[in-house]
Amino acid sequence: MPGPVDPYPTNPAFQALAESAKLRAQLSALFGYFGQIKNADLDAAAAIVGSKIADAAITAAKIADGAVTVGKEGPRPTALAYHAIDTAIGHNNFTPLVFNQERFDADSIHDTATNTGRLTCKTAGVYLVTANISWAANPTGARVVSIRKNGTLSVAADERVAVTEAFHSTSHCCSKLLRLAVNDYLEVIVHQMSGGNLNVSYSDGVSPEFGMTWVAP
Question: How far is CA 201 from CA 116, 147, 210, in A?
Answer without folding.
Answer: 18, 18, 14
